[in-house]
């Protein structure tokens, strides 16, 4: 496959009419930063999308289901964090357990995301860090398989977080303060300025700090973040961006898992929303540090070279309580079912990406070719682990065993301050890849998108047990678009992604990775001069090479023997409508329905809503604005006769008023009618969703 990629590069470089006509001025293409960056003040996607192939494609030209949450929509709905964002993405089920979330789309777990189109995986993907959206101007969500850029993962969805840039040649910015439910107070700011007289060097600084209590007993949260970026035009043809981000998230008195769902006799418990199994001394703190550097150079033939590097580190410090047993009818539980766990962990990820983008002409038709290489290195270490189960012989552990029962209504458990053990648990995942994509214009209306990725995947763990290595893993990409008149485009695509697995065969060898194959056809449209964008697509996702038990044990290891078989099949439909209905009315609507079954024909991922819909509309008149929205999730359950959450709808409201030239006030109310519902369920646990909350913010813009 590497030879095929090299041949593709050579073929495009040797075309006699390969390059488009030269620009009179390359700086016009750069225009302070990349040409695809424009003012984002609406609900429709103006920017070119590079979340699938790195080709310069509009949303309409992208042959996959795509949702863009613009800066304006994030601001109007008060979306500031990763977990809140997930609630508002059409087709996503959040499934929250504690501080962690396990989002799914189309029946599969979302197990990675992208930062400026570079993948972030491993522990960073699980949502426990609840990443602040402070550094990002918009989020591009591609549904289904996106393996050409991501590498390993599930065929669920990829969220691409696009960073803010320093794109202003004059001083401007905004400051804000806010107050809300449960003693929630915050301050934020965003300032841009030129560094030199010409504005060829520009800087931007954003910050936020917020603290709050909660409807949950004991719980409180402090969140601080700062982001800085310096962008520089190097001559007329080059651009350099250097940025850094730091977030410190402290959560005390929180839960580890949900509340027990059943009494010992099998009847349902009836805990109130404020009750959680926790104590004030518990904590789940995370510090995150990011650095990145981007370089872009335009050649005289309009081709470009792009180099990117990013580094991210997350340090976790947790001390948690968990109860995994049954609850007696009198509200007591068995002390032996109590678990206390503390952990100090560090995660690091390095990303390097280098690619060239070459536009060219053949037969008076415009084409585009991209080829590049990517390197990802993720390391995780848990050097200090402490658990009550491991420390029953210590004085602190024995102090807990002295009590035989616990009272859920009156816990009063002291921090045992168990001694840490140096576990020295370390693992590393390395992905290397070469990729290429070509946009071929057969006619002005008909275009083919052809791409492929060759991946090298390596996983290593301390001690060597569990190491695995895959080479020459091929990920193809095929897309077709056909324009019908000025407003509509038909599309079809075949995309794929691979997922390494831990299952072993009779020879004690790891099975090949699971293959996720995504087939999609649909139609996209643009109306009102592109201000209103719509898409309708149907999809089918097929898992292949999934490890299936054959009912035998390996005599040497006593482990189950697996063989590659059929996996899950998911079928469904996606509908999106975003943009401006009129000059004063903006709308964002998305709906998804899917049905997923395993190889035996049984329902799969029943804790993921089969039908979801998200709606938000804003109307502006004079200095006033009013926004209203609704979110619908269909029934979910865990085991046929166990916990069930019926379908429900949550409403939200936004009111805004510009009371002076530079001053603005906005009120957001979420869960307007105070609906009681489960946001996470398990075999014997449930987690309630947030009740009605409000947030009032005052903003000054200059």
Structure description:
With 702 residues, the protein is mainly β. It has a single domain, classed as TonB-dependent receptor, beta-barrel domain (Maltoporin, Chain A), CATH 2.40.170. 6% of the residues lie in helices and 54% in strands. It contains six helices and 39 strands. The chain has a 22-stranded antiparallel β-barrel. A five-stranded mixed beta sheet has the order 1-7-8-5-6. It has a three-stranded antiparallel beta sheet with strand order 2-3-4, with no helix packed on it. Strand 21 and strand 22 form a beta hairpin. It is globular, with a radius of gyration of 26 Å. The N terminus is likely disordered.
Compact summary:
The chain has 702 residues and is mainly β. It has six helices and 39 strands.
């Amino acid at each position: 496959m590497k030879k095929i990629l090299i041949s593709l590069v050579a073929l495009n470089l040797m075309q006699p009419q390969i390059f488009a006509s030269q620009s009179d001025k390359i700086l016009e293409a750069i225009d302070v930063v990349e040409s695809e960056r424009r003012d984002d003040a609406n609900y429709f996607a103006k920017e070119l999308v590079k979340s699938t192939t790195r080709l310069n494609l509009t949303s309409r030209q992208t042959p996959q289901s795509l949702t863009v949450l613009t800066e304006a929509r994030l601001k109007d709905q008060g979306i500031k964090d990763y977990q809140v964002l997930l609630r508002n993405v059409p087709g996503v089920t959040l499934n929250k357990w504690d501080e962690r979330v396990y989002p799914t789309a189309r029946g599969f777990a979302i197990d990675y995301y992208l930062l400026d189109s570079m993948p972030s995986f491993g522990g960073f993907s699980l949502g426990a860090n609840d990443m602040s959206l402070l550094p990002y101007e918009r989020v591009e969500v591609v549904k289904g398989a996106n393996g050409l850029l991501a590498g390993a993962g599930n065929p669920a969805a990829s969220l691409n977080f696009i960073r803010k840039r320093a794109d202003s040649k004059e001083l401007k910015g905004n400051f804000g303060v806010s107050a809300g439910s449960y003693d929630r107070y915050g301050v934020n700011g965003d300032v841009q300025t030129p560094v030199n007289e010409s504005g060829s060097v520009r800087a931007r600084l954003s910050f936020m700090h917020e603290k709050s209590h909660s409807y949950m007993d004991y719980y409180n949260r402090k969140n601080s973040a700062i982001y800085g970026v310096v962008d520089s035009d190097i001559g007329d043809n080059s651009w350099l961006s250097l940025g850094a981000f730091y977030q410190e998230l402290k959560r005390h008195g929180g839960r580890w898992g949900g509340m027990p769902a059943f009494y010992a006799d099998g009847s349902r418990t009836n805990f109130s929303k404020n009750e959680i199994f926790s104590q004030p001394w518990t904590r789940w703190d995370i510090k995150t540090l990011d650095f990145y550097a981007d370089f872009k150079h335009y050649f005289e033939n309009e081709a470009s070279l792009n180099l990117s590097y990013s580094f991210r580190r997350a340090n976790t410090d947790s001390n948690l309580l968990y109860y995994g047993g049954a609850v007696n009818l009198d509200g007591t539980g068995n002390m032996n079912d109590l678990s206390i766990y503390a952990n100090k962990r560090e995660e690091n990820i390095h990303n390097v990406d280098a690619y060239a983008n070459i536009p060219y002409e053949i037969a008076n038709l415009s084409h585009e070719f991209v080829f590049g290489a990517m390197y990802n290195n993720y390391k995780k270490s848990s050097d200090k682990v402490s658990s009550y189960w491991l420390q029953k012989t210590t004085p602190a552990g024995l102090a807990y065993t002295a009590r035989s029962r616990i009272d859920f209504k009156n816990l009063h458990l002291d921090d045992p301050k168990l001694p840490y053990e140096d576990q020295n648990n370390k693992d590393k995942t390395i992905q290397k890849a070469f990729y290429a994509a070509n946009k071929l214009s057969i006619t002005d209306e008909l275009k083919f998108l052809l791409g492929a990725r060759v991946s090298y995947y390596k996983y290593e763990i301390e001690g060597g047990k569990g190491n695995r290595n895959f080479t020459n893993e091929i990920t193809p990409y095929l897309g077709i678009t056909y324009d019908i008149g000025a407003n509509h485009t038909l599309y079809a695509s075949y995309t794929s992604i691979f997922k390494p697995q831990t299952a072993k065969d009779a020879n004690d060898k790891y099975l090949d990775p699971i293959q996720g194959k995504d087939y999609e056809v649909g139609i996209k449209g643009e109306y009102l001069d592109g201000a209103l964008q719509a898409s309708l697509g149907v999809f089918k996702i097929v898992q292949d090479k999934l490890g299936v038990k054959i009912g035998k044990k390996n005599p040497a290891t006593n482990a189950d023997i697996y063989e590659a078989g059929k996996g899950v099949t998911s079928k469904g439909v996606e509908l999106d409508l975003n943009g401006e209905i009129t000059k004063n009315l903006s709308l964002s609507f998305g709906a998804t329905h899917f049905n997923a079954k395993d190889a035996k024909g049984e329902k799969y991922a029943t804790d993921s809503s089969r039908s979801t819909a998200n709606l938000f509309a804003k109307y502006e008149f004079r200095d006033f604005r009013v926004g209203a929205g609704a979110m619908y999730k269909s029934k979910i359950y865990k085991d046929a006769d166990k916990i069930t959450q019926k379908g429900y709808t949550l409403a939200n409201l936004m009111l805004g008023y510009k009371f002076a030239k530079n001053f603005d006030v906005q009120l957001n109310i979420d869960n307007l009618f105070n609906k009681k519902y489960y946001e996470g369920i398990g075999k014997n646990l449930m987690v309630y969703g947030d009740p009605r909350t409000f947030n009032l913010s005052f903003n000054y813009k200059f």
